[in-house]
Design brief:
Layout lengths: L4 E5 L3 E3 L2 E3 L2 E5 L6 H9 L7 E2 L2 E2 L8 H7 L6 E5 L10 E6 L2 H4 L2 E4 L7 E3 L8 E4 L7 H9 L3 E11 L7 E3 L5 E2 L13 H4 L20 E7 L9 E4 L12 E12 L3
Antiparallel strand pairs: 1-4, 2-3, 5-6, 7-8, 8-9, 9-17, 10-17, 11-16, 12-15, 12-17, 13-14, 13-16
Length: 262
C-alpha cells in the first residue's frame, strides 16, 4: 500500500565516514511503499537526527488527524508521522484510517497479539504473562502520539471458563498494574457490566468474576488515554479446580487507535 508521503533526497553530504541525505518530506498520496519508507528513514546513518551539526529536516504530520486537518482529501493508507515534531524521537509508520470516526483521521497501530489467544495451565494470579510489541514504534513513541491526540482507545476481551479476572490485570504504558477492564472507570476494579449493572450475576462486577464452569466474557474499549497503550497482559486461575474441572480463558487485544487533536 502506498504511503501518504513522498520523499525527495537532496545531494548527499559527506561527514566523516558517513553519507547523510538531507530529508524533506511532503504530503503526497501515492509516494513510497512501506518498505521503501523504512529503508529511507531507518537505515543508518539516516536514523540519526543530527550528526556533527547536520540536521535531517522533517516536515511530517503529528498524527493522522493532523494530516486530515491539513489535507481534508487525504486518503487512507500507510503514513509516516512525527508526534514530537523536532524532538529526538524518530518518526514511525502507522495506518491512517481516514473514514472511521466521521472521517477525523484515525491513527492505527498494529501489534503482535491481536489474535484470540489461549490462556491455560497458569494457576497463580498473573502467572500467565504476555508482552505486547507494537509494529514500527516503541512505547515512548506511542506515548508521544497520545500526547497530541484528543482520544485514544484499545479493544480488550477476556473469555473465561472457570477463570476469574480477579486473578488477572494489564500493565499500562507507564508500567502500572491496572485492574479495571473493558469500558470501566480507572480504579473501579470493574468491567463495563459492573459500571452499568448488567453483569450476568448482580453480586459481581465482571462476568468473569462469576468463576463457574460456563463460558462467559467481558469485552469493550479501554479509553483512558493516560494508561494506553496496553504494555502487558497478565492472567491466572487457568488450571484444574479442586474437582478436576478444566479452567481456561482466551484474550483478544485490538489495535491501538488515536484520533482528534489535543
Amino acid at each position: 500500500m502506498a504511503s501518504l508521503y513522498k520523499f525527495d533526497l537532496e545531494t548527499p553530504i559527506i561527514v566523516s565516514d558517513f553519507v547523510i541525505f538531507s530529508l524533506i518530506v511532503f504530503p503526497f498520496c501515492g509516494g513510497c511503499t512501506a518498505d521503501e519508507c523504512r529503508i529511507i528513514l531507518f537505515e543508518e546513518p539516516i536514523a540519526n537526527r543530527a550528526i556533527k551539526g547536520h540536521v535531517i529536516r522533517s516536515i511530517l504530520s503529528r498524527s493522522c488527524s493532523d494530516l486530515k486537518k491539513l489535507d481534508p482529501k487525504a486518503k487512507s493508507g500507510i503514513c509516516l508521522i512525527d508526534p514530537d515534531g523536532e524532538g529526538r524521537l524518530l518518526p514511525f509508520l502507522v495506518m491512517c484510517d481516514m473514514s472511521n470516526k466521521d472521517g477525523v483521521g484515525v491513527t492505527v497501530i498494529s501489534h503482535d497479539s491481536e489474535n484470540r489467544t489461549l490462556v491455560d495451565n497458569n494457576n497463580p494470579p498473573g502467572d500467565y504473562s504476555r508482552n505486547i510489541y507494537y509494529k514500527d514504534a516503541n512505547i515512548t513513541q506511542l506515548v508521544s502520539l497520545v500526547s497530541v491526540s484528543q482520544s485514544c482507545e484499545q479493544f480488550i476481551k477476556y473469555e473465561c471458563l472457570g477463570s476469574t479476572l480477579k486473578d488477572g490485570f494489564w500493565v499500562s504504558c507507564d508500567s502500572e498494574k491496572m485492574t479495571y477492564w473493558s469500558g470501566a472507570a480507572p480504579e473501579s476494579h470493574m468491567c463495563a457490566c459492573g459500571m452499568n449493572k448488567s453483569c450476568e450475576k448482580s453480586s459481581v462486577n465482571c462476568n468473569c468474576h462469576v468463576n463457574d464452569l460456563k463460558w462467559r466474557e467481558d469485552c469493550g474499549f479501554l479509553t483512558n488515554k493516560t494508561h494506553l497503550p496496553v504494555k502487558k497482559l497478565k492472567f491466572g486461575d487457568t488450571d484444574v479446580d479442586a474437582k478436576g474441572n478444566e479452567e481456561k480463558g482466551y484474550h483478544t487485544l485490538g489495535k491501538f487507535k488515536c484520533y482528534g487533536i489535543a
